[in-house]
Design brief:
Lysozyme-like; binds zinc ion; 249 residues; 2 domains; six-stranded mixed beta sheet; alpha/beta
Length: 249
């Protein structure tokens, strides 16, 4: 990092508009309180824009961010874009009605360009001022559709978003003070309950649930559920319960 403030003082968002026909009204007049991040898994942003605007594909997103940081608005934020598909976060099962979808142009295996992530953080700051969206409700497609989706994938830097207050990360204390180990079976049950308290759907196979958790919070870690996984999800569930009205001790 050179001189000057970190991640600030950048030029304004470079925003262009290309209207996608793949959208409709948000059901029951709800407003967005979730952001879902995706990658396109395509070779170029222009190919992805064509797909997201083609009426035959029935898919879209509110925004597509190109590698060079250009932000393409495809669907107005007030409308329902078609990006999430089957899945859930907390009690929300019509995720499209309750969310804003952002596609990052990326093949899935290449690093995200700095200009692209800078544009994403600027865009998220704007979205957070326009809608009431808590940082823990900025999630990945893989979080709301475990086992079915893996984007935004292993290259995405969730810690940086959390550092900017645009997502969340377990506190480092949680990782040091790993919790007591019970039997594997009891721990699996506890893990599933904590995952649900944070927002994950527990209709998912327990192994896929653990995979999705590690894809987001403990990249590259393998093997059975352990005390560190439990400590991390305990910290997240306590600080960021998906149901803020639920008493979670
Ligand atoms: Zn996706």
């Amino acid at each position: 990092m050179g001189s000057g403030a970190v991640y600030s003082g950048r030029a304004q968002l470079r925003l262009t508009t290309r209207q996608s026909p793949n959208c409709g009204p948000r059901r029951d007049g709800v407003t967005p309180d979730i952001v879902v991040l995706h990658y396109t898994a395509m070779a170029s942003a222009s190919a992805a824009a064509d797909t997201l605007c083609n009426p035959d594909t029935q898919v879209s997103a509110h925004y597509l961010i190109a590698e060079d940081g250009e932000v393409i608005s495809l669907v107005p934020e007030a409308l329902r874009a078609w990006h999430a598909g089957a899945g859930a976060w907390g009690g929300v099962t019509d995720v499209n009605s309750r969310s804003i979808g952002i596609e990052l142009a990326n093949t899935g295996s290449t690093p995200f360009a700095a200009a692209q992530i800078d544009a994403l953080t600027d865009l998220l700051k704007g979205i957070k001022t326009r809608w009431d969206i808590r940082p823990e409700r900025v999630i990945g497609h893989s979080d709301m559709a475990p086992g079915r989706k893996i984007d935004p994938g292993v290259r995405f830097d969730w810690r940086r978003l959390a550092f900017e207050g645009l997502s969340v990360w377990p506190s480092s204390n949680a990782c040091l003070h790993s919790s007591e180990k019970g039997t594997q079976e009891a721990d699996d049950v506890r893990f599933a309950a904590l995952m649900a308290a944070f927002g994950y759907s527990t209709t998912t196979d327990p192994e896929l649930l653990l995979k999705s958790f590690r894809l987001r919070f403990r990249l590259g870690w393998d093997g059975p559920l352990d005390a560190t996984d439990l400590a991390m999800i305990t910290d997240l569930a306590r600080r960021f319960p998906v149901d803020v009205n639920a008493a979670w001790a």
